[in-house]
Specification:
It comes from Heterocephalus glaber. Residues 11-112 form the Protein phosphatase 1 regulatory subunit 21 N-terminal domain. It is found in: Early endosome. The structure is a single chain. The protein is mainly α. It is 85% helix and 1% strand. The chain has a two-stranded antiparallel sheet. The chain is elongated.
């Protein structure tokens, strides 16, 4: 088979080569004929030059003859002037001689007149011949130049074709060699394939025997164990739980999320558009702050003020639809019950558009009837009225298809499965139509705004309102374009997931069957989860017996242990109270010690040295009593150092001071450690928040790059198709160009023949002249 295909391909290439060779020979003959024609024209040009030279010589001879005749006439006139006075003197004597002279004069005059007429006629003929010769010469020269250029072009084409044919010959020879090598390899592969087919046939026989045995066994098991096959009936098959496609569910949820974002943008743009339109009615053509507006515009403004109650539910319905699509559900038309609510909200918005459309048209007509409206502004208003009608019609069309898509979740007989793809394609077409209508509205409203801004009565309030309306219209246009492209990109995904029912069914399954299926799916998921739940670790039997003995022995002494715990808790509370009491006593003792020390110092300064010993004894007694109280409160806080019976008060104060300073240092170090930990945790939290923001930005950039990549893929596919078409068009143009070249060659031959005939006729005329 491969060798036959190679031979057929080679024969086709040989036939194409023979055709190209025949065309090359024809082109060569045409070029040779053109060269011969150009040589003949050059010879004709030489002959014309020779005839022109002869005519110039004749002209020179005629001019010389004319000069001679002119001199002779002058001489005759001089003689006549001399003979006239002589004739007066001898009138009587020479009457006979005067008669003779008059006769000679008349003869000479006639001869001169004939010569002059002949000379004039010759001049005219010579001038006409010269002009005709120049015209023919210029025409022939131009034709010769064009023919030479065409011959050069034909020669270049012939050279290019010959080079192309040589390249094709070399390419064909290389292809022939490659094909021969390929044919040899294919023959080897064919031999190997034959051997493999024999082995495969043996394996097939073995497998057939094995599978036939298994089939008989499985049929016997099915007949014995399976009492009922529910896949034969579409109604029973709809109750079976389908395979869970998590990837498909995630994709559908992502698509619903994107659709929710587009609907939110569209709702925002519609709210802005209706609100700013209401503001514009209040200020143009009559400002409500200066004068009262018409009752029509008042009613229109009242209706526009209610736009939020019709537009906001669209976003809410889409949000409920998005929330109903989860990873655990099966997203098909029978289960998307929330699509019905979205369709109802869209129907209410269509009713709102139908209600405000007549008022909007009448308002535009009222603007056209005002004295400020120019002809250009009136034309823009008419275009906007047409656009508003189209916008309402597009929304009605879209609502019709959305209502059809919501039928399977409520009325299973309302939509046939075969019409599902056509409904989806019509939804995409409606969205594209909405985008086109919004582009026209944006274009016409921008022109209207520019015309109104140029009016002398245009206020800054009107200009800002027009800019706001124009920005909302642009947002609507962008949102409609994004939604249309999004739906057209994902329509294949929608068509692929028609329904979970059997393929042989002629209609969708009923919504109650879909609800039962979802309940069965939840039960199956719970059952699988219960099966996968790990069992708790069990205790060995011997260890359990030992624990039981311990438990029984501990229950007997449970009351005693409870009493001990209660007593220990009471002791702990008492000790805590005593601790607080002695801490207060220690603080009071410290304060008393400081006061006594100050009093002793003051007395030592005021009294004499004789009383120093008594005061010292008193101070020591007071100090010893205070120290004893403090030692009873907390011995660890105030250690005592004494030399004999009298303690050293200064060393005691230093120890207390050092203890509290160490405690303060320890607390400050703990505080600093806590502060450093809090700063560290704050820095970590800040870094994590920054990383989160960067991750979200990178996610957005990646999604944009994915969108750009998908757009580039579609653009490259379109460019590939266009390049293919352009190549096909170039081939057809080349064939047409070759046909036109042949036609031009035939026309040039005819022109050359006509030139030859005309040159022969001109030469005959010149000879006759």
């Amino acid at each position: 088979m491969a060798s036959a295909e190679l031979q057929g391909k080679y024969q086709k290439l040989a036939q194409e080569y023979s055709k190209l060779r025949a065309q090359n020979q024809v082109l060569k003959k045409g070029v040779v004929d053109e060269q011969a024609n150009s040589a003949a024209l050059k010879e004709q040009l030489k002959m014309k030059d020779q005839s022109l030279r002869k005519l110039q010589q004749e002209m020179d001879s005629l001019t010389f003859r004319n000069l001679q005749l002119a001199k002779r006439v002058e001489l005759l006139q001089d003689e006549l002037a001399l003979s006239e006075p002589r004739g007066k003197k001898n009138k009587k004597s020479g009457e006979s001689s005067s008669q003779l002279s008059q006769e000679q004069k008349s003869v000479f005059d006639e001869d001169l007149q004939k010569k002059i007429e002949e000379n004039e006629r010759l001049h005219i003929q010579f001038f006409e011949a010269d002009e005709q010769h120049k015209h023919v010469e210029a025409e022939l020269r131009s034709r010769l130049a064009t023919l030479e250029t065409e011959a050069a072009q034909h020669q270049a084409v012939v050279d290019g074709l010959t080079q192309k044919y040589m390249e094709t010959i070399e390419k064909l020879q290389n292809d022939k060699a490659k094909l021969e090598v390929k044919s040899q390899t294919l023959e080897k592969e064919a031999k190997e394939c034959r051997l493999r087919t024999e082995e495969c046939q043996l394996q097939l026989k073995n497998l057939h025997e094995d599978l036939s045995g298994r089939l008989e066994e499985s049929l016997s098991v099915i007949n014995e164990k399976v009492p009922f096959n529910d896949t034969r009936c579409s109604q029973y098959n709809a109750l079976n739980v389908p395979l869970h496609n998590r990837r498909h569910q995630l994709k559908m949820r992502d698509i619903a999320r994107q659709a929710l974002a587009f609907v939110q943008d569209l709702v925002t743009a519609l709210l802005n558009f209706h609100t700013y339109t209401e503001q514009r009615i209040q200020i143009f053509p009559v400002d409500s702050a200066i004068d009262t507006i018409s009752p029509l515009n008042q009613k229109f403004s009242q209706y526009l003020h209610e736009n939020a109650s019709y537009v906001r539910p669209l976003e809410e319905g889409m949000l409920h639809l998005f929330e109903s699509i989860t990873e655990d559900t099966v997203t098909v038309l029978e289960t998307t019950v929330k699509l019905k609510t979205f369709s109802e909200h869209l129907t209410s918005y269509i009713c709102f558009l139908r209600k405000i459309l007549p008022y909007q048209l009448k308002s535009l007509e009222e603007e056209c009837e005002s004295s400020l409206c120019t002809s250009a502004l009136r034309a823009r208003n008419l275009e906007l009225s047409q656009d508003m009608r189209r916008m309402t019609a597009v929304f009605e069309k879209l609502q019709t298809y959305v209502a059809l898509l919501s039928l399977p979740s409520t009325q299973p007989d309302g939509l046939v499965r075969t019409n599902y793809s056509s409904v989806l394609t019509n939804v995409g077409a409606a969205l594209h139509g909405f985008h086109d209508v919004m582009k026209d509205i944006s274009k016409h409203y921008s022109q209207k705004a520019t015309i109104e801004h140029e009016l002398p009565t245009a206020t800054q309030k009107l200009i800002t309102t027009n800019d706001c309306i124009l920005s909302s219209v642009v947002a609507l246009t962008n949102g409609a374009g994004k939604m249309a492209s999004f739906f057209s990109n994902n329509v294949d995904c929608f068509i692929a997931s028609l329904s979970y029912g059997p393929q042989a069914a002629s209609r969708f399954t009923s919504p109650p069957a879909a609800a039962c299926m979802l309940q069965y799916k939840k039960r199956a998921a719970a059952y699988m989860k219960a099966l996968r739940k790990p069992l708790p670790e069990s205790v060995p039997y011997e260890e359990a017996l030992a624990d039981r003995r311990v438990l029984l022995s501990s229950t007997e002494s449970r009351e005693g242990l409870a009493q001990q715990v209660q007593q220990s808790l009471e002791k702990i509370s008492k000790l805590e109270q005593e601790k607080e009491h002695w801490m207060l006593e220690a603080q009071l003792a410290k304060i008393k010690l400081e006061k006594e020390n100050q009093r002793i110092v003051d007395k030592l300064k005021s009294t004499s040295s004789g009383q120093l010993a008594g005061l010292a004894q008193e101070s020591t007694v007071v100090v010893t009593t205070a120290v004893q109280d403090e030692a009873m409160a907390k011995a660890s806080l105030e250690p005592v150092q004494s030399t004999g019976l009298v303690p050293d008060a200064e060393s005691r104060e230093d120890l207390i001071k050092n203890h509290y300073m160490a405690r303060v240092v320890e607390l400050t170090s703990q505080l600093q450690l806590a502060d450093s930990k809090s700063v560290h945790f704050y820095a970590e939290c800040r870094a994590l928040s920054k990383r989160l923001v960067l991750a979200e930005k990178s996610k957005e950039t990646l999604t944009e790059e994915i969108k750009v990549a998908s757009q580039n893929i579609t653009r490259l596919q379109d460019e590939l198709t266009t390049t293919k078409r352009s190549y096909e068009d170039q081939l057809s143009m080349m064939s047409d160009h070759l046909c036109s070249m042949n036609e031009t060659l035939s026309k040039q031959r005819e022109e050359i023949d006509t030139l030859k005939m005309s040159s022969k006729g001109n030469s005959k005329k010149n000879k006759s002249r």
